[in-house]
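Listing S7. Sequence submitted for prediction.
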Amino acid sequence: MSKMAGACRTIIQCIGEDPDQEGLLKTPERWAKALLFMTQGYTSSPAQVLNEAVFTEDAHKELL
């Protein structure tokens, strides 16, 4: 995660901001945690995600 936070810090610098200013100090770590959370499904199998929550339906009467 430290490598990801470092990459975010570099991006902040590249857009002309100071990553050491008060409002951006924790941003790289927050960004890295958020990215790991949002992509955690890439390492999960469909069976883990669905947890046997699949059921059959006789007919669909609604239009989507």
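Caption to Listing S7: primary sequence and predicted structure tokens for the chain studied. The chain has a mean pLDDT of 89. The first helix runs from residue 2 to 14.
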